[in-house]
Amino acid sequence: MFLNCKTWFSYRYGTFSTQELVDTAADLGLSSLGLTNINSTADLWDFVDFCRGKNIKPIAGAEIRNGDEFCCLLLAKNDAGLLEINRFLSSYLQEELPFPERPDCFLEVFIIYPVGRFAAGELKDHEFIGVLSGELTRLKKQELQAFPKKWLIRHPVTFQNKTYFNVHRLLRAIGKNTLITKLGDADFAAPGEVFVPEAELMAAFRNYPVMITNTLQLIDACSIQTELHTDKNKRCFSASPEDDRILLEKLAMEGLDYRYGNNPVARQRVVKELKIINELNFNAYFLIVWDVIRYAQNRGFYHVGRGSGANSIVAYCLKITDVDPIKLDLYFERFLNPHRTSPPDFDIDFSWKDRDEVIDYIFKRYGKDHVSLLGMYSTFQRRAVIRELGKVFGLPKEEIDQLVRGKDQPMNEDKIQRTILKYGKLLENFPNHHSIHPGGMLISEKPIYQYTVNEMPPKGFCTAQVDMFLAEKIGLFKLDILSQRGLGHIKEAIRLVKQNRGIDIDIHRVEQFMVDPKVANQIKRADTIGCFYIESPAMRQLLTKLKCEDYLTLVAASSIIRPGVAQSGMMKQYIERFHDPDKIVYLHPKMKELLEETYGVMVYQEDVIKVAHHFGGMDMGEADILRRAMSGKYRGHDKFIQIREKFFANCRGMGYEEAVTAEVWRQIESFGGYSFSKAHSASFAVESYQSLYLKTYFPKEFMVAVINNFGGFYSTEFYFHELKRTGAKVHPPCVNSSDYLTNISGDEVYVGMIHIEQLEKSLCERILTEREISGPYLGLHDFIERTHAGPEMLNILISVGAFGFTGLGKKKLLWQANFLQKRQTEPMDSPALFREPPLEFVLPDFPDYPLEDAVDEINVLGFALTDMFRLCADDGRGTVTAGEIGGLLGKTVEILGQLVTTKDVRTINREYMAFGTFLDPKGDWLDTVHFPNTLKRFPFQGKGFYRLKGKVVQEFGVYALEVNFMKKVGLKDKKATG
Question: I need a labelling partner for 392 at 20 to 30 A (CA). Which of 152, 436, 534, 710 fits?
Answer without folding.
Answer: 436
